[in-house]
Amino acid sequence: MTATDPALTALAQGWCALSLLHGRIEAHIERALQTKHGLSVREYSLLNTLSRQHDGEGGHLQMKQVADAVVLSQSATTRLVTRLEDRGLLKRYLCPTDRRGIYTDVSEAGARLLAEARPTNDTALREALDEAAKNPELAPLVRAVESAGTSGEPSHGPDESSDAGAEQVIVPA
Amino acid sequence: MTATDPALTALAQGWCALSLLHGRIEAHIERALQTKHGLSVREYSLLNTLSRQHDGEGGHLQMKQVADAVVLSQSATTRLVTRLEDRGLLKRYLCPTDRRGIYTDVSEAGARLLAEARPTNDTALREALDEAAKNPELAPLVRAVESAGTSGEPSHGPDESSDAGAEQVIVPA
DNA sequence: GCACGTTAAGTGCACCTGCAATCATCTGGA
DNA sequence: TCCAGATGATTGCAGGTGCACTTAACGTGC
What we know:
The structure is a homodimer of 173-residue chains.
Chain A (H helix, E strand, L loop, with lengths): L5 H32 L3 H16 L4 E2 H8 L3 H13 L3 E5 L7 E5 L1 H26 L5 H13 L22
Antiparallel strand pairs in A: 1-3, 2-3
The structure holds a DNA duplex (30 and 30 nucleotides).
């Protein structure tokens, strides 16, 4: 029964904590974004990711890359983009060089909504982290999250791209 | 547009990384558990949590506590428990002192399946972490996860209970 | 130029989830 | 004792997600 490798069991502990922390934070932000702006966490995440690409350079993203960035299946990404497009928050247009690929780009309305929602998101995140920090099991992870953004780059770094190895990078252009 | 508080933006970076890491790991483990044992990550997590309670003492959990432990709504928890009960992996019985509450407990078949699935889970977790560690943005979080289980307690510690403050503890009895 | 395999996006379907409403039970007060 | 408020579990319903499959387009070899 419990005769498993202790090292692996310890890892499972850490994963359990990570999962718990993620769930708590996501639930908290979800409520805040949903009630105040009618956005889900994933929708916000998508807008945020796309806008950041737009920020750095004219790097629009293809569906596949979007799917990888937000960790969703291609089908789910298709529908997510469709929903946001129907709401006028982003645009979809074919890639001229490869007609299979479809680029997505945030519209002005999308950028505006994102700007409105950003404070809500950040505040809710701060609250959720403070709440989680009270739990000794979660505290080390909370600290890791807090230092993740400040350590390497000054303001907004190279985002979460560069992938995990077996796949492609997120920022192509 | 981008005129937001840099400190909050940095936090968002960390949250983004956490979310990405969680998504990658979950997807990887999900595939492994699903194909080899017909279990979803949540189902495994539920069995694991319940079995740990059983391990320490005779602490069965009520639905509400289960819901909090796996970060699920009460309704989703009800159905999750129902599914596993239908498969004979756990039992449900009324609490004698409070007939509103319903205890859940892992059955022998559930414990067996959990024991079978544990190596799969741990291996997949190890793989996912190694994969994520290649990403410099995710590496610090990976290290935090790895050290989370080993630092405080010797083997299996007080699990992820103690809650985040505004709610109740997970291990009552 | 045409057939073959590969890759990107979208669709049908089944399943899981959260919210709101409901039922049963406990608790405190008149 | 009986009633109102609170809490735990469940259910109806709408919506999001993944898997398997289909369609469109690229690239290669003949």
